[in-house]
């Protein structure tokens, strides 16, 4: 690691294979906490390259505990986090709405690092059981249309770095990796990223895969469709600028999608919204994201997906999906 750090401090970059080997070495506990902290810090102060990001991703996918959900043609709906906006759990709510609309979801998530409440925080609070048992996860999809893949259970390579990320409390390049390392290898993905630069990197990486995808960055900094302004969206074949008007909805203010200051706040908001009792702004934001996920999986227009998402939320189908998942967690 000393040689790697010396090179990085001198503004050199890593090759794909070097980046991959660093993560493999991390998984073996070959570096001390000071070295790991320094390594993470480098990528907070300079841009990551496509080769580095790809190498890190390849290592985590190679080392992860793999789950076979291929038969369900599921989609993952996940953001990088790290946008510093502290919104309510938009991607997780969108996942249940998508499941309620009849599209299977394999939701990859983790505890919040730089935000109040990550996906796993609110799921755990609501009583969802985390498991890496394949049969249980398959049962979840068959019964509720969704399963939760809590990242630490599938990425043992991360056990040495997780405490350091928590202590740092800021976004690191691992935020960039999270959406790309779903252990079920879903063929459909809707991904949110925290910067325009990362949107471009994801676009380059994903164009060389067989994944059906939409990648989103809101131009005012959100890693999802926020409806607070325009968003850039890159898919397999197109690149477009999205506006709230495209869905016939009003632009929302930033405080309309604030997530609260505690996990309990986040869970209360989550429950209110999934019961169809949120504000119009909250409903529109989650359905705009779920609508794009549905459109991605079904290969339909975003407007059609948005209508299906609204129906799934307001009819109670999304809530039913959550209730079924919680019930399965108690068995």
What labels would you give this structure?
two-stranded parallel ribbon; 331 residues; globular; 14 helices; alpha/beta; five-stranded mixed β-sheet
Explained architecture:
There is one protein chain. The protein is of the alpha/beta class. The protein is built from 14 helices and seven strands. The strands form two sheets. A five-stranded mixed beta sheet has the order 1-4-5-6-7, with helices on both faces. The protein has a two-stranded parallel sheet with strand order 2-3.
Strand percentage, roughly? 5-15%
DSSP helix fraction: 40-55%
Rg from Cα = 19 Å
Helices, by number, come to: 14
Gross morphology: globular
Largest β-sheet summary: 5 strands, mixed
**First and last CA, distance:** 46 Å
**Which regions contain 5 or more consecutive residues with pLDDT less than 50?**
none
The tally of beta strands, per DSSP, is: 7
Please tell me the overall pLDDT: 94
Helical/strand content category: alpha/beta
Widest beta sheet: strand line-up? 1-4-5-6-7
Helix and strand sequence: HHHHEHEHHEHHEHEEEHHHH
Quick rundown:
The protein has 331 residues and is α/β, with parallel strands linked by helices. It has helices at 2-9, 16-27, 33-45, 50-63, 90-100, 119-125, 134-144, 162-168, 173-177, 196-206, 263-274, 280-298, 302-314, 317-329, and strands at residues 75-79, 105-109, 146-150, 188-192, 212-218, 231-235, 239-242.
